[in-house]
Amino acid sequence: MKKLKTLLALVIVTSLALVGCGQKAAEEPTKKDESPFEKVAALYEEQIKGHEEIDFGIDSYGSENATYMYEYAFVNMNDDDIPELLIGKTDESFGVKYIKVFYYDKENNKLLSPTKNIEIGVAGAGGFRADVVASNKKDGLILEQGSGMNGQFEIVRINLDIKEDGTVELKNTTLQEYMLGDAVERETEGEGKIITWYAIDDLSALEQFKAGKLDLNKEPEESAESQPKEETEQPKETGAVVDNKTVFQGTLKYLSYNEVLELQGIDDPNAGYADTSEKFAILVLGGETDVTAESGDGTGSHTDKAKMIKLANFADAANYNGKEVKVKITSMFWPSDTSLPLLEPYALEGEYEIVE
To answer: Residue ranges of the domains in the chain?
Structure first.
């Protein structure tokens, strides 16, 4: 009987101990699993914060004593669920931005980067011009590049080429070639999406990415300063408001090379080597207007007087010839060469649209 009592006591003590352990385990918080976005964000953050250590391989042809500005962006270059990281390094004295792509290798939890860069901007010498947009079909990037000197341009699709040896490179496919001033019907019409760039020390987009809340389909918000203000005492105006900052009004002229010279009342500054067959879409403003635009040599933006604005590669220009129009322009450049119209600003294709 004594043994039975002892056995029962042991059973009770053991049961209580097990219940206590169960309660303790239930009370201890379960460690939260790291999301795939957090894992990738940690790797992206290393590159963003260590941007000055990234080898862009541009020392041999970057300008002497150059100063650089760094930015970053996210794009979907393929249809997986992880956007690629872009880090841009702009040579502020030369006017060219060098872009490094970083791809997340999910299988090995590491970043891969192609050896080649993407180059965009307006060079301070040589006539190089280029711009890149993302494909809204998640089919790589779309690069438009060429030379303002010889007028030869091309549209290129850039995809990621994942190699069997575990490396990645950029695969460039030329879609179209044309001469500056040609009316070009683009294969990628409507596919391009402007890339939103962030200052390298602004980690807001990285934090959104980490939380899985980064929306690459959301259009960049315009600052309050750039929004046209409504006059409270006037009835609300319909249509686009002309503010000569984002929306400009004037007469659109579709002109030949010699007609632009006549319009400006100048002799040919490029006599002997210009492509005189080039056609121009020119928005002629209603007098001298203060225009703020980026300097083509990459030295920053400044405000100056303009009488007209060139709308580069405006395929539908002939249909608007002689008409009064309003044009919304997201960015413009002051020329760094003697291209026509001489000393007047221009907007690249994709940076402007006719508005009502």
So the answer is: 36-218, 241-355
